């Protein structure tokens, strides 16, 4: 444990104004201690990749950041608002934090365009025409504008995930959370989704991404966080992280995912 | 870029398509596959054909060939045998409108037209706009004015004189249209995070669902007045209507809960993550999907409640079935049960079958495009 902490302190993060601050966050599922003393600060424009073995709490951690999961101890402050039981505050945070899910979770009864305009119209109270114009802009950006009037069920997995990204972007979020966005995709569709995410990163979006795509981590991340058994074991720049991992657990994990 | 998924199945192989062998298509193949595919199915087919042969000619004979046309007096009918359709033409107005004053029966007739028109208008999805609600309020107000009268120069008609088809339609249409939104709230309440709301919803549903409708109607007509201070009189028809609404709401709530449970957790999470509040998430995301799934059980409830309105006869209200029975008690027309029940049976069937057909169309429309 001490060693892991030392490793994490190899470099101080973040370097800039923080938009997310977690301090001493703990979470339990019943008796099971899923998150243990998570300290995390994310700067504006930072791109973070979170990796770790399954069951290590990485999804749970990012789901706490928009309160899809409740934490029981510690504090989480997003965009200046502390996440507590206050529903109004939760809704305010969720407006500014976009989320992309492993299973896309598009609304099957709405067209692609309606999926994208729903929240801007009802949450941001935008006029319909303006919302549609913005939606088309983002759909173009994820290169799927020509499918705008189709239903999600008519699209492939990769196309659905790109729509899901556009849907989140339509809320003009300050932070984007990605929860294993490529894990449910057929191999040939992973690239089209990663390309969109790389484009986003290049435009300076603040991103937290739970993923096993180490190539993506190497090429776009500012910081890689390794989690195991509910703790942040190590965090570093991708270069340092992959070339000189500090803790034994990280080394073991990297050897398992990179050498096959 | 990735349109490879839905390009359709165009054969471009080197072997040309051929027609299937002759004995696997066409009427002979159909007969063999559906009626005579095993020896016991062949036996069943022959048996059923024989039964139909025995049953249908006498039925047609009674219904049409030996039937006495409109106008034949009942005495002649009795001698001749065969259906006596004079009963229907003679008793039509009584069966349809009950004891509503004879000269004023154009009023319940218009009521029927208004209610059916409202229902038909509501069937068209293009009309699902806020003004449809206003149309309903206007329509039902017109119905109230027509039935009660007492204003606009219409004579006042007490609602104990109401009966027949308008009563059946009003009880079921008003009942179901109030019970439906109530049932949505109950279903949501049963799945609420707030314990108090959940307990109230569960208690209500289980309590109401656990007693027979008849006992609820009896309670509404006999027991309820006991709890009221003397002098306060609650209208009997209204009490029956409320009993119906309470019962239908509990049943439909369970149908809708089934739909709610079928919606994947990811839909709730996606709605939450976009910042929609509870009512927006329910109204825009969850309920549209849940209700579409619940259509078959909901229509089942609708149909069964439409017919269950005939139970009001036990508390002395004369709906369509009640007036038919009352018409049979006329000494001159005693004994024409078959004609009477067949006639109202056809009316009930037309309404129920339309509901069923419409629901199938609605299901197809709502699932078009987005079914995987």
TrEMBL record, chain B:
Residues 165-359 form the ABC transmembrane type-1 domain. Residues 1-20 are annotated as: Disordered. The keyword rRNA-binding does not apply. The chain crosses the membrane at residues 39-60, 106-123, 135-157, 169-189, 210-228, 240-260, 309-328, 340-356. It is a multi-pass membrane protein. This is Amino acid ABC transporter permease. Gene3D superfamilies: MetI-like.
